[in-house]
Amino acid sequence: MASLRVLAGIVVLVVVVAGLLVGFRLLQAPGEGEEATRAPTATATESPTRAPVRLTIVTRLAPEEGEALRSRFLASSIAKSYGIADVVFLKEDVSKWPIYASEGRADLFLIGGYAVYKDLCDKGYLRPIRDPEVISIATSVGAQIYRGADGSVCFIAVSRTIFSYTVNTVFLSKYNLPEPTSWGDLLNSIYSKPLLAGEALVSYPKPSKSTTAARVMQMILQKYGWDEGWALLTVVGALSYIVESSEKARDDVALGVSGMAPTVLVYGIRAEEASGGKARFVVARSEVLPDVSPVAIAVNSRNVEAALAFIKWLLSPEGQRALAELFYYLPYVKPEGTRLEDVYERVKGNIFNYDPEDAASWERAAMYYFEAAIADPDANTLLKRVWAKAVELYSRGVISGDELRSIALRLGSPLTITVEGRTVKFTKDYAMEINKRVAEDAGFRSAFMSSVKRAAIERYEGILRLLEARG
Amino acid sequence: MSRLLLPTPIAFTTLLLILPVAYVIGTLVVNVGSGLAYVYVKIPPDGELYRVYHVGGTRVVALTGYDFGPVANTFILASIVSIVSTGLALVTAVTCLSLRGPSRLLLGYIAPLVASIPAPLISAYAVIHLFHRDFGLVNVVLGELLGFKIALEGIAGVAVYQVLNFYPIAHLIVLSYMELIDRSVVEVAYNLGGRGLGVVSRIVMPLAKPAILVSLSLVFVLSAEDLSGPIAFSRYNSARNLMSYIAYYDFVSELGYTVSVRAVTYIAILTVTAVVVFLVAWRHLKSYLYPVASPTRIHLDLGLLKIPLLTATLVLTSLAVLPTLLVVGYSLTEGWFGSRTPLGVTVDNYLRVVSNQYYARALANTVAYTVIAVVIAAIIAHMAAYSSLRSNSRLSPLVEVLTVIPIVVPGIAVGIGYFHLFHSLFKSVPPLDPMVNPSLYLVLAYASRRLTYTSRPIIASLQKIPLSLEEQALNLGARALRVIRTIILPLTLNPMLVGVLLTALHVSTEFSVSVVLAGAHGVSASHPAPITPVILGALTYNPLSIHVMSALLIATLVASITASVAVMLVASAIVSGLGLKGVLVLARGVRV
After folding, report:
1. Which residues in chain B have Cβ-Cβ distances shorter than 8 Å to A384?
2. Which of A142, A149, A345, B516 suits B125 as a labelling partner, its CA being 20 to 30 A distant?
3. Testing the interface with A: which of B254, B366, B514, B516 to mutate, by most A Cβ within 10 A?
4. Which of A26, A208, A443 sits opposite B34 (nearest CB)?
């Protein structure tokens, strides 16, 4: 009996260990950069010299988007002729992309901001694209080609997306508000009505959590100028629920929790669908911000030829159509017969001439400044009180429209802060000076944001006292 | 082998829980000065308790709450939530003790268990759906009946949400303890002329003091570390001004996992607070006997108060269960996002869960991780129980402490700590690198974080097992492991299964660790992600996917719990040598 129990125990142990090993194998993520096992049979169209390949693509696409793109690509003739047996998409935080590149765990990077790719390119994490066929196709469709310091092609934009905003018509009609035609319209006091009723007109994501919010912030600063841009951003902050993601902003405007949210085109369309038409994507007047959707090859990719094939497919008519139909990305080739054809036309005259190089030189500093002076809970609560008071005084005729505008400028003009013993105004030059350090040095970033917040609260409290003295 | 009984649980908790968290908090040492800048209190506070608005002809009472800053907000909120939850739990527990039969089981145990089922992320949508000032279902009814609406906004909204969320846990703690009060004590009180609330206040409440203190301390810690409530109300500044929320979102950024002095400061404060609360309540936590449902122990006669108390209990229980019922409702309908009524009723959501490879894979992954984590936790729990209660070593009290500590460690700290520590150690050893093999670390994190749910019932049960049974076995030549296998395991089977059920419930809905470690792995039939990152990704992609995601959550919960309980029964049958029939009899409970 005892020996039977021992035997049973040994069997249990073997089963458990085997189960763990099998489970590990089954559950193991596809190894980044590893070669796929050979397919059991080769199709007639495969070149006899090409071994079946599995591409690993690190991306910002959602898993469902990756799956949709994967299906289209694997069904294409390019995938078959290059022997590409599978494609794995990994949605990863951009801070991990350098690890994937340097350790040979990825073949390609797809989608994500221009600044991310420029950073990867500058630091040598991208493999130059030298294939003449790829460069020729890109040039012929008008795709933007980005070169590194040595002149070699670092990454290529395979399509564009556009940033604008989405509104909820039911929310707007609740307060009898006209649909804003641009962000600048929000300086009009009528858009403060929800604030006076304890709600917020806008759901605005924190720029460090949302590419959309970061781009819109950059566009406003470039279009309206540094000082006036910050004044507008400050008023927008006063009118906003500060949320943690683009998706939350999209859902707020789809539900009617707020009346407006900065959205990328695809999210605007999703909000329209989810709201049953109550939400509407608006092409802002002269404020549509295009962003490129880049693709690049990782520096230590083990499947370079297959990676180039994927890029060729993205630039082909088939690939361009897939990007338009699946993700509502604006391709370089006009998407006739698709939902985006109308958007493609409306966007034409309203594109803002965004300068990515200029924005990249100060964007991190601006982002953390925004989050300390405007988005921080303590600062934002006070800001709302100040702006509500100002609008209330204006509506009662105690202050004029010019005074209200002047208050907006005072609220938003760049703060004078003291960081590490140095007192300085947050000018564009200063932002450029600290841009790199604020991104890489956690201690400095913390000190910077603390001093900005302190200065912002001091200013808002001062202005509030003055307004309260007026009535 | 017996010599490993004591060091194994110590090593397990130290290496897999304390070390990763210490690694994260260690970065604070360099920046202590700047960390202190984030510890402040706003006097006077911002905001107000409530405000009345008139919008479109409707009166809206917006409950918002005061904002004292993140540190004070967290402690004030936790104190209020723990006191209110425990108070409400006392009301409902006493009411349940006046009931008999199925109604006692339903109101006393089933409904609160259903209400305490976590529904990460989806619950935030359910909260908007229920409480939004315009289209919230509760306000639609209130508006029709009373002509005004109540808007839960700001930190007041978080408080109400947390009370509804944690009161069922407080209720279960208090009720199950009260069930163990000696029936004869209550009967003597009635025989001597005691009536109604007099018996409750003079007899039942004093005897239930350990449970009250356990409830207060546990709910305090849960509230302080809660993320779901702040996320649900995060569009309001005061709700964002909580330490757990700030710490989590400071780490997770569009630009990656950034190191934030503020986040580490708040995690350190939360961890220290949880440890202090834990130490203060340790005497009662130690002696608290884990729930053993026994609906026939005592019966209270509440007299005329029974009707109003029962009404209050029904209202409270219904409100607590509503969010969970709404999640179930989402899983069986379509087109209910942001609308008063769904477009239709359907089972297609469940069919999509099994037919979509990606979702089915997530379900299978979660079940596998849960079962493995539960088995590991059960083994460690038995080792810890035996070595803390039966060993004469000076380390025995340490073992018992380490079985309770997991409940006070913030999940976000564990997730981030695992990623940074183990990737930097094992980046050149792929099977041990969390970037390549998150599955291994998910299982270990789950087992270590939820050890308390598995271990406490076993320890409580072991305390009641007479030592003489084991001494006889030892005298006859059995070693410690055999004693555990053949005596302790069978006699603690029922409470162990309760622990397994709770562990499986919380492991399969674990959020922060899962998202940090497995949030990246995307589309393929062999991805390693459990359901919570998949739910996060799907809702990010398309809010209409809430229906399928609700079905995925419920299907996974049912499968995980069933599989875990089944595996533990089979494993117990084999290990104890009693066979399946024997363990099924024992699973019903043994009075020793």
Report:
1. 237
2. B516
3. B254
4. A443
Measured in angstroms, the CA of B230 and the nearest CA of chain A are apart by 12
Tokens of residue A238, six digits: 């006063």
Asked if A211's CB is within 8 angstroms of B53's CB, the reply is: no
State the virtual CA torsion across A121, A122, A123, A129 in degrees, nearest 10: 30
Q: Please choose, from the candidates B215, B139, B138, the residue with its C-alpha nearest in 3D space to the C-alpha of residue B171.
A: B215
- Do B255 and A95 make contact, defined as CB atoms within 8 angstroms? yes
Beginning with the edge strand found earlier in the chain, give each strand of the sheet holding B46-55 in spatial order.
Answer: B46-55, B58-67, B148-152
List A residues 15-34 in contact with B (Cβ-Cβ < 8 A).
16, 20, 23-24, 26-32
Per the listing, tokens 């299906």 go with A71
Cis peptide before A207 (omega within 30 of 0): no
Q: Is A455 an 8 Å CB contact of chain B?
A: no
pLDDT averaged over consecutive 10-residue blocks of chain B (592 residues)? 76 89 72 74 90 83 93 96 95 91 87 86 80 82 83 90 90 84 82 83 86 89 87 90 87 56 83 84 64 61 88 91 90 82 90 86 94 93 85 80 80 78 82 83 92 84 79 82 82 82 89 76 65 82 83 94 91 86 73 47
In the block, which residue shows the tokens 């810690």? B221
Instruction: Tell me whether A464 touches chain B (CB under 8 Å).
Output: no
On whether the CB atoms of residues A144 and A171 are closer than 8 A, the answer is no
Q: Would an 8 Å CB–CB cutoff place A6 in contact with chain B?
A: no
pTM: 0.82
b (16+ CB within 10 A) / e for A390-407? bbbbbeeeebeeeebeeb
Q: What is the ipTM of this complex?
A: 0.81
